């Protein structure tokens, strides 16, 4: 299953925004334009599908006042998230969630699911009206999910957010407190669980990749230390005839981040939300990342869908990156605007010198029709491809 579109209304810095999503999309924009907020919309739905109730997911993000867009005005103050997806049979799934505040607690005001243009679920239903506490739980939750929508719930649970923290990786004892997804983010455990033949194949592939980015980086191996704990080591080539091995706690932070991201690309077959993979890298190395990521995706048995954020124009210089794979976030007084399919040179110039390109960017935004998402929704009136 793949995500094809997303609609946001009153979500953080987005008053009303929509964008198509292909097999790979690179989200870029100035600092503070909402790149992390965009990824957090997917993480929010993932948390609901994993069993976190609505109040818990909202409170983890600072409360409803921190989630709601500052431009939201009565009566349209509810937050709306909407996903369009397609499964392996090219059948379309649509999920729509509208929630707001009643009293002092956030509640679900509308939850709709379609499959192949057929409405499968609509909430609130009779049971929700009898027991109002049910409106604090999504139908995607394992406690509420039904067999007809289990496929959608399982897919959203599998979304993986990848923003490796080098200090957390070095000290695995802190993973439970610092990592959001403790069982998945324990990188060494994931590597050790991989079958030996496949593990050696992936480590050999990654060692070749890391050599192109980090000088002196050699072979990778996974073995146990004196206490029986798994340790990842890399050979270090130098002037002596015999190479030395460096434990991964001695690796540069950029090398740790890259290895974690690259391993996840080879390991996962579900959408990956990757936060700024270029952190700590030289611009020349950043310009090579698109090619390397593309080769890793091709070598994967089931290529994952990639949603990548960046603020580096060097990441966009690869000639094989199409304009429709780049989503530009533009801060505006009425909320962040999304622009897709713009020329790469205009985007790069805007990122490098925002003040000089602001007039041209504003002119293009005014010429384009901005997407609009209605707050209230009637399934019987739905047209294909529009909500």
What does this 3D model show about the protein?
The chain is an alpha/beta fold and 387 residues long. 34% of the residues lie in helices and 25% in strands. It has a single domain, classed as 3-Layer(aba) Sandwich (Rossmann fold). It contains 15 helices and 15 strands. The strands form 3 sheets. A 6-stranded antiparallel beta sheet has the order 2-1-4-5-6-7, with helices on one face. The radius of gyration is 22 Å and the shape is globular. The chain starts with a strand and ends in a 20-residue tail after the last helix. 34% of the residues are buried. Mean pLDDT is 84; it is low at 173-184 and 381-387.
Tell me briefly what this model is.
With 387 residues, the protein is an alpha/beta fold. Helices cover 34% and strands 25% of the residues.
